[in-house]
Amino acid sequence: MPHRRTLLFAPLLLPLVLRPRAARSAESAPMPAPGRRAWAKDVPVIRIGLLGGENEADRLIRYDGYRRLLEQTFSVPTKVLMAADYAGVIQAFAAKQVELAYMSPAAYAAAWLASNGDIEPLVTAEEADGSTSYVSVMYVRADSPIHNLQEMRGHSLAWSDPNSASGYLIPRAEFRRMGIDPDTYFSRTGFAGGHEQAVIAVLNHQYDAGLAWASGIGDERQGYTRGALRMMVDKKMLDMKDLRIIWHSRPIKDGPLAVRKSTPQAFRDDMLAFHLALPHAYPAVFHAVDMGNSIGWVRVQHADYQVFIDMLKTEAEERRHRR
């Protein structure tokens, strides 16, 4: 029988079951007029934090047009700061070393805790069907004898990152909801260092299975419409014929583009307007950053991610209890 604290995850997951709305256009706004702002005296450099999980060269290429557009629009130097893992950006928010980052929901929650609330979500991606969610998928090698979660008992599993919703927090919560103790059900678990790294570890026979984020819609043989697997397919790093999906979670709220809350309100207003305008004004730049089929961004609030903060707190309590 699962421990009583395991059952606490069940109500926390309810807000994650997002029903797609009727298709509609994402929010939009005019692109802010170019020119240096008064807030530049408080934000002399816009520092963009990038979560780990993708190789460094690809991240730099994808974000360069976005960085240059921010710089040109506001006449303020803009830098991209790459982290080896999610924790790097989380700690950068706590140390006031970044102003902006596109984050996973769990990374946002961790940054909110680490920075004592000095982070504010602005927008999240919206798909063509109106949905603002994704799923966690568990995959094995195509030649593996494992075909479902039940057959994973006694086999090894690669978590993506301890601050990843799809690669750690949500699967653990889902497993517990099903009465599975992830600390004893699998023969061995470990952190691969990111979604791409987990896929490579599985393909290299270091683990029997791994976890990644995916839209959960579209052609599975292409890695779905978006997600870690699709990015690897598009970059010729992965052929989905080499993997088999054996499990997926319930929908997870898309992570936000977040800004440091202690920056001037005028800066945060400009960042919101810039990003709401970006998909329509500069679609190529938007899709380079989004790496998916999103139609734009919609506003989000801190309350949308409170469930992830609660999960992190409960996970921390579980760890203390296991010691």
| Main beta-sheet strand count, sense and barrel state | 6 strands, mixed
Strand fraction: 15-25%
Shape: globular
Oligomeric status: single chain
Mean pLDDT: 87
Number of E-state strands? 12
Looking at the overall shape, the CATH architecture of the largest domain is: 3-Layer(aba) Sandwich
Write a structural description.
With 323 residues, this protein is α/β, with parallel strands linked by helices. The protein has two domains: 175 residues, Periplasmic binding protein-like II (D-Maltodextrin-Binding Protein, domain 2, 3-Layer(aba) Sandwich), CATH 3.40.190.10; 120 residues, Periplasmic binding protein-like II (D-Maltodextrin-Binding Protein, domain 2), CATH 3.40.190. It is 37% helix and 18% strand. It contains eleven helices and twelve strands. The protein has a six-stranded mixed sheet with strand order 2-1-3-11-4-12, sandwiched between helices. Strands 5, 6, 7, 8, 9 and 10 form a six-stranded mixed sheet that branches. The longest helix is centred in the N-terminal third of the chain and has 19 residues. The protein is globular, with a radius of gyration of 19 Å.
